[in-house]
Each structure stands twice: as C-alpha cells, then as structure tokens.
C-alpha cells in the first residue's frame, strides 16, 4: 500500500567530506505533523546514490505526493530528482527547506515542481495535502507558497507563525524508510527564530520572532528519544542561540543535572559572545549539566568586517568570551572565520588569521577554529546586495562549489586567490592546534580523551594526541583506570604505590630516552626502576634517592606522559 506522502532529504556524496549524513530533523517534524493530521508519511533520507533506488520504488508503488527538502548545498540535485520523479510518473512535487525562501518561478520551471513552500512548512504542507490527496481547497488559498499559473509566478501571503511549539508532535525518526546506521547523536530543536540580524546568515534574515518550547516539553522528548536508543551519547540542541534567555538556560540546566543522574550524555549548543559576557555565571552551570561542546560566532578578527556583518560583537568581546569559557571549564568550543566576506583584502584576512591564532593560544585544549568561505545563503543582505559589501557573486546558483570553493570576488581577490588564502589559514590553525596539544597539562589531555570516549567528541587536539602512540597509551590507561596520576594519590598512601613506566627505556649513542623523550641520568635511573615491580619507597631506595626526590623526578616523567602509578 502506497503512503500519502514521501519526504526526501538527499545530498550528493563526496569523498573529501565526512561519511556522516546530516539527517536534518525538519523532515521528521513535518512527517510527524502530517501523521498527526491523518496522512501516512515516510521519510527518505540519505546520499543520492543510496536514496535513488528507494525513491524509484516508492514512485512505482504509487505514492501520490513527493516533497523535497532543499538547502544551499543540494538545490541542483533537487531540480534533477524532481524531473526524474515526473519522468517516472507525473505527480505533484513540493519543495521546501531553508533554500526555498529564495526559490520562485524560474526554479519551478527548471524542476517541474508544483509548488515551493516558503518558511515554516507545517501549515502550508497540510493545506497542500488536503488539496492533492483529499481534493479540498484551492491552490491560491494555501498560505506561504509559490506556484505557476499559465507560466506566471504566483505568491500567497505567509501564514501566521506557530507560537505554541509545545502543541506540535515530536520529530519521529521511526518514519524513515531506512536507517543506515545507529547514530550516537540526537538533534533537538528547542526554539525557533533568531533575534540577531547578521547580514550573512539565513536565520536572522528569514525567521521571525523567537518562539520557545517549554523545558518540560523538551525534556519529555529527550527522555523518550534516549530511552528508545541506548547508543545516543550526544544531544545537539540546534537552536540558533541557545543562551538567549538566562532564566530558561538555568531551568534547562537544573533539569539536565537531574536527568544525567540516570543517563550519561553530553550536549552541544550555540551561543552569541554577547550573551556569554552578559551572563558568565551560566557557563559553570552548563558544564555541570553536561555541556560538552559550545559553538560561538567569531567570523572575523576585523572590527570593520564585524560591523558590516551586523554581528553586534567586537574582537575584544570574542576574546573575553573565549577566556570566560576556558576559565569555566568548557570542554570544547568551535568557531569559524569567514575568508572572502565583506570588504575583504589580503591584509584583513591576515589580521583574521593572526587573531585566530591568538584565540587558539587563549583557548588551548578547548577552542577549535576553522576557515570557511562565504556562502550566498538565501535572502540575506549580502546575497541580495553584494555590492554594498564590496563583493560580486560570480556563481549565484553555486554550481561550482560544495562550500569548498568561493563563488564570489572580493575587490581584487579572485576565487582562486581566496581559495588559497583559506587553505593557508586552515593549515595555520591546524598546525597551532597540533603544537598546543603536545603542551597541554595532563589533566586537560585526560578530559579531552574522556569526552572522546564517552561522547565521541573528536577534536583536533584528540586527533593529535591519539596520533602520538606515547600520548595515546598513557591517556587510555588513565581513562581505563589501570593507572593513576601522582596528584590523585594521597601523600599517606603514595609510598606503597608502584611507579609504572608506559614505554621502554632506551640508550643509544650514550644518550638515554623514554621512547622519544630524552632523559638525564637521574631520570633514566628512576625510569628503569619504575617497572611496576617495586613500590615508590622500594624504587627510591634502589635509586639511592629520598622519597621526595624520587617523586619529584617521577612527576617530571609523568608530565611527559611516560610514567604513572599502579596500586599493586
């Protein structure tokens, strides 16, 4: 039996991108809403080459309506697949999603789609289903859509925003036709809308006032999803700015602290530097409540550029926000810097690069920075009026880019030059992270590894540490509880613990080493005595050292991640 509606979210697979598919929750929210209103819906989500046979099978089975989710990255694929659907069997195709706000008559002609849903999809899609499946209503009366009449583009007024988000059903991933693999992450939207109006950002340009779900409503969904899937380790709150309302954040943290007594998971959120500076007291509570990763908007190290972006931040504010997060013990922070944005020159890009390197030093062990190209997202000020920002959009449909290559010219900076400058900045950031990783205190390294093992949070720091055999062995043994650090053992007990080296002693050409770490004669003697067979007191006597002197040298070896302590 054919379903009433097939919702499709599909992207092209590239070898240089992550293997993970971004399974957007919007289609599952729409599917649940349609099911609640009496329509049978299935979701097809995956890479094009995997999804195509299933799409063809659904068409052959007789599904009467197909809807495609369209964003900046897959609009050309949606055009081609929409045509393919109608070659197989003429039926109405509906297109929605973030990119849809910029799509009109030309897109409908190229794709053959019946209508584009602009903005929030629940009410327009329901009305379309009532028309197409039940024969009720008229196309021109459906709110928030674009359609063609005798080749002429027609637009209807937007529907009122849904204010009571608690009245909506929870997103239902069980409606997926296939599940490629169990995910360790859960995406949850707790609010809609963004109050900021950044000139490059989709949300500020296209969403309306901020509307929030109640904390109780979100926690009910969270419990339901986590209890249904024991493999979930990370919860990603996908609100544009989770920290907007301090009272609500405190309420969330209280609820999360209580629930994490039953189930261990970490969570991710986004924050504006301004909200961090306004309410720094929230950060320790968020960490206590399980915050594993925080994203903030950096975008540039140039004040003029930030003003053009309407960011409501300054480089100084960003630095202070990073310092607050570092001091509060935020485990991981990620941010981007745009290369090839407003009024860019080689000099401004170099200032952003140097600013980013300073931030990494400040947030050592926590902050990750990535260089990205400007993307002409729909209906944003920079996309609509690039000339006002010193830019020219050379490829408006972005047919030459996968977000990996610029589609703009910035003054004298060609796409080719911008591509090279971005690569240089990204490599500078990656190299800085590699350097910082090997200088981190042992406690920070342990925390990084702990979050990697528990929540699959793999940062550039973790990749560096795991890529060094000496570091990875040391950290894994600590995480497993096989050994302990000196600082974690009481002074009264330390004498009876066993110093245990984590790699082999080596003498070569008269020089002593612990694997790749050079040692002086005393350190080498302590290292040789630390095979785990003798206690601290026995090993100190063997080396003709006092306990205090032995432990001082052992601490130096521990700091180099070549020695720890075992109880027996």
Structure description:
With about 575 residues, the protein is of the alpha/beta class. The chain has 3 domains: about 150 residues, Rossmann fold; about 250 residues, TIM Barrel; about 90 residues, Arc Repressor Mutant, subunit A. About 40% of the residues lie in helices and about 15% in strands. The chain has 21 helices and 22 strands. A 7-stranded mixed β-sheet has the order 2-1-3-4-5-6-7, with helices on both faces. Strands 8-11-12-13-14-15 form a 6-stranded parallel β-sheet. It has a 3-stranded antiparallel β-sheet with strand order 19-20-21, with helices on one face. Helix 7 runs parallel beside helix 8, helix 16 packs across helix 18 and helix 20 crosses helix 21. The model has no long low-confidence stretch (mean pLDDT about 90).
């Amino acid at each position: 039996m054919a379903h009433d509606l097939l919702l499709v979210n599909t992207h092209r697979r590239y070898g240089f991108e992550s293997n993970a598919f971004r399974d957007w929750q919007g289609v599952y929210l729409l599917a649940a809403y349609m099911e609640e209103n009496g329509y049978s819906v299935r979701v097809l989500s995956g890479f094009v080459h995997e999804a195509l046979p299933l799409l063809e099978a659904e068409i052959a089975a007789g599904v009467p309506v197909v809807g495609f989710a369209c964003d900046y990255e897959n609009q050309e694929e949606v055009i081609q697949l929409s045509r393919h659907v109608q070659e197989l069997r003429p039926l109405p195709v509906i297109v929605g999603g973030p990119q849809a706000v910029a799509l009109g008559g030309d897109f409908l002609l190229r794709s053959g789609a019946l209508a584009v849903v602009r903005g929030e999809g629940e009410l327009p899609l329901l009305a379309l289903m009532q028309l197409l499946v039940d024969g009720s209503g008229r196309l021109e009366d459906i709110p928030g859509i674009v359609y063609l009449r005798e080749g002429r583009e027609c637009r209807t007024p937007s529907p009122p925003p849904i204010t009571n988000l608690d009245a909506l059903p929870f997103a239902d991933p069980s409606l997926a036709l296939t599940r490629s693999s169990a995910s360790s992450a859960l995406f949850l939207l707790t609010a809609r809308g963004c109050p900021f109006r950044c000139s490059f950002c989709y949300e500020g340009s296209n969403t309306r006032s901020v509307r929030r779900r109640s904390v109780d409503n979100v926690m009910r969904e969270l419990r339901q999803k986590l209890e249904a899937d024991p493999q979930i380790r990370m919860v990603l709150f996908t609100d544009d700015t989770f920290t907007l309302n301090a009272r609500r954040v405190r309420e969330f943290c209280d609820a999360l602290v209580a629930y994490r007594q039953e189930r261990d998971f970490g969570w991710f959120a986004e924050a504006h530097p301004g909200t961090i500076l306004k309410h720094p007291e929230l950060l320790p509570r968020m960490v206590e409540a399980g915050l594993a990763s925080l994203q903030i908007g950096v975008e540039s190290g140039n004040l003029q550029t930030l003003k053009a972006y309407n960011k409501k931040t300054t480089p100084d504010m960003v630095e202070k926000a990073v310092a607050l997060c570092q001091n509060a013990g935020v485990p991981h922070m990620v941010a981007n810097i745009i290369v090839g944005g407003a009024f860019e020159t080689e000099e401004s890009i170099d200032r952003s690069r140097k600013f980013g390197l300073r931030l990494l030093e400040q947030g050592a062990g926590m902050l990750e920075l990535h260089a990205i190209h400007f993307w002409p997202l729909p209906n944003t000020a920079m996309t609509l009026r690039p000339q006002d920002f010193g830019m020219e959009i050379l490829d408006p449909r972005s047919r030459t880019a996968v977000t990996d290559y610029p589609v703009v010219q910035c003054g004298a900076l060609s796409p080719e030059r911008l591509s090279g400058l971005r690569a240089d900045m990204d490599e500078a950031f990656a190299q800085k992270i590699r350097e910082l990783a090997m200088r981190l205190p042992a406690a920070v390294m342990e925390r990084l590894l702990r979050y990697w093992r528990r929540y699959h949070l793999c940062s550039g720091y973790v990749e560096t540490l795991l890529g060094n055999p000496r570091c990875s062995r040391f950290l894994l043994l600590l995480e497993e509880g096989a050994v302990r650090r000196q600082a974690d053992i009481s002074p009264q007990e330390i004498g009876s613990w066993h110093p245990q080296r984590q790699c082999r002693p080596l003498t070569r050409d008269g020089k002593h080493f612990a694997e790749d770490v050079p040692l002086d004669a005393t350190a080498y003697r302590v290292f040789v005595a630390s095979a785990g067979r003798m206690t601290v007191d026995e090993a100190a006597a063997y080396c003709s050292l006092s306990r205090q002197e032995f432990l001082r040298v052992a601490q130096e070896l521990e700091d180099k991640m070549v020695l720890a302590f075992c109880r027996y």
